[in-house]
C-alpha cells in the first residue's frame, strides 16, 4: 500500500478509508514519503524545521537562510500561507524553539502531482530566524553525491509504515545514496517512475516515512535531497525517493531571491 506522507491528519483519515478534501490521493501508484531511526537533538541537525498546518506537524523542511525554507512542493498543495507555521531550533515538533508564520511560498513551476517530478518548493517566513547552535542554514549541493555515499535523513515522521502516531522528538537514520540511473534500473522496482531530478537513498530497515516529506537528506555536510515519495517505508526494492538538490539548486537560489 502506498502512503501519503505530509499530514498526520491525512494518515489518520487514510487509515479510516477517507481522504480529507483538498489533499492529494496517491492511489495513482506513487507516494510521498523515520523507520529504523534514532532519537536525536536539533543541535545535530540545526537546519531541520517542522512545517505545521493549523498547529499540527505536517512536513519537514530545511533552513536555507534566515527567512527562507526549502521543502517539497507536495507539502504545499491546497493550502494557504495563512495556516502555515514553522518551528525551528527545537528537538520537539510540539514545543520549544521558535514558531514563525509563513508569509508566502512558491512551488516549482514544473511540479507534477501525479509523478512527483520537480517536487520542490521555497517558503518565505514573515520574520527572520536568529542563528544559534540549534538554528543554522545548510548549504545546497552543487553536484549529486556518488552512488553509495553515506547520508542522513531526519524528521518527525512516523516510526513505521501506516502508523498515525508521530514521535515528539526528532529522529534520524543513516542511509546510502542510490543514483537516479541505478534507482530506475531493474535492481529496484520503480522503473520509469524514477525520473530526472530525483535521487534515491536506502539502508536495510531504514527509511523516511509518513510526516518526513519535505525534510532534509544530507551528505557531505550539504543538502542533497528533499524527501519526496516512495512505496511504503523501508521496503526492500523500494528506496526512498528525493528531489535532487543539485538539479534544482539554481531554481532555489533564484526563487529565494525573488519570492
From TrEMBL:
Superkingdom: Eukaryota
Xref: InterPro entries: Peptidase_S1, Peptidase_S1_PA, Peptidase_S1_PA_chymotrypsin, Peptidase_S1A, Trypsin_dom, TRYPSIN_HIS, TRYPSIN_SER
Signal peptide extent: 1-16
Peptidase S1 domain ranges (all copies): 34-257
Gene Ontology annotations for the cellular component aspect, listed alphabetically: extracellular region
Keywords recorded for this protein, A-Z: Disulfide bond, Hydrolase, Protease, Secreted, Serine protease, Signal, Zymogen
Protein location: Secreted
Pfam family, one: Trypsin
Coiled coil ranges: none
SUPFAM superfamilies in UniProt: Trypsin-like serine proteases
Biological-process GO terms, alphabetical: proteolysis
Single annotated GO MF: serine-type endopeptidase activity
Protein family per UniProt: Belongs to the peptidase S1 family.
PANTHER family per record: AT26814P-RELATED, POLYSERASE-RELATED
Protein name according to UniProt: (Mediterranean fruit fly) hypothetical protein
Organism of provenance: Ceratitis capitata (Mediterranean fruit fly)
Amino acid at each position: 500500500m502506498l502512503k501519503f506522507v505530509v499530514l498526520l491528519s491525512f494518515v489518520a483519515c487514510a487509515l479510516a478509508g477517507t481522504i480529507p478534501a483538498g489533499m492529494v490521493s496517491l492511489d495513482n501508484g506513487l507516494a510521498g514519503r523515520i523507520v529504523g531511526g534514532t532519537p536525536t537533538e536539533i543541535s545535530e541537525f540545526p537546519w531541520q524545521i517542522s512545517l505545521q498546518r493549523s498547529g499540527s506537524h505536517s512536513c519537514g523542511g530545511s533552513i536555507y537562510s534566515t527567512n527562507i525554507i526549502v521543502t517539497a512542493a507536495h507539502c504545499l498543495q491546497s493550502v494557504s500561507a495563512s495556516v502555515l507555521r514553522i518551528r525551528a531550533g527545537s528537538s520537539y515538533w510540539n514545543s520549544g524553539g521558535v514558531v514563525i508564520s509563513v508569509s508566502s511560498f512558491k512551488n516549482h513551476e514544473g511540479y507534477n502531482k501525479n509523478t512527483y517530478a520537480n517536487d520542490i518548493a521555497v517558503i518565505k517566513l514573515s520574520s527572520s530566524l536568529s542563528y544559534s547552535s540549534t538554528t543554522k542554514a545548510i548549504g545546497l549541493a552543487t553536484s549529486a553525491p556518488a552512488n553509495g555515499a553515506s547520508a542522513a535523513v531526519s524528521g518527525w515522521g512516523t516510526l513505521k509504515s501506516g502508523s498515525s502516531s508521530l514521535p515528539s522528538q526528532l529522529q534520524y537514520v543513516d542511509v546510502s545514496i542510490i543514483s537516479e540511473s541505478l534507482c530506475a534500473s531493474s535492481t529496484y522496482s520503480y522503473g520509469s517512475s524514477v525520473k530526472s531530478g530525483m535521487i534515491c537513498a536506502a539502508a536495510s530497515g531504514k527509511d523516511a516515512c509518513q510526516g518526513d516529506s519535505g525534510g532534509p537528506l544530507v551528505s557531505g555536510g550539504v543538502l542533497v535531497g528533499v524527501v519526496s515519495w516512495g512505496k511504503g517505508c523501508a521496503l526492500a526494492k523500494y528506496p526512498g525517493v528525493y528531489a535532487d538538490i543539485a538539479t534544482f539548486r539554481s531554481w532555489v537560489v533564484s526563487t529565494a531571491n525573488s519570492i
